[in-house]
């Protein structure tokens, strides 16, 4: 049985949740820091601009 681990990211500046397409751990990006690429954009972002979190598959319920 294979378990796929998914991640998502909270964009601090735009205040929105983004789906992660790719995590890059190469030393060439951002001076050796983690870089992420989200589904909505084709560019890589520095991890300091986002909050990375594991996606459990559960969604928040909006309360009124």
Walk me through the structure.
The chain is an all-beta fold and 64 residues long. It has one domain (6-54). 0% of the residues lie in helices and 44% in strands. The protein is built from no helices and 5 strands. A 5-stranded antiparallel beta sheet has the order 4-3-2-1-5, with no helix packed on it. The model has no long low-confidence stretch (mean pLDDT 77).
Q: What are the defining features of this structure?
A:
64 residues; mainly beta; five-stranded antiparallel sheet
The residue ranges in which pLDDT falls below 50 over 5 or more consecutive positions are: none
Helix content: under 10%
- Termini Cα gap: 40 Å
Cα-atom radius of gyration: 13 Å
The average pLDDT value, as a whole number, equals 77
Trace the largest sheet across and list its strands. Answer: 4-3-2-1-5
Tally of individual domains? 1
Strand content: 35-45%
DSSP strand count: 5
Brief description of this entry?
The chain is mainly beta and 64 residues long. 0% of the residues lie in helices and 44% in strands.
Topology diagram in text:
Blueprint: E1 6-11, E2 16-24, E3 35-38, E4 44-46, E5 50-55
Antiparallel strand pairs: 1-2, 1-5, 2-3, 3-4
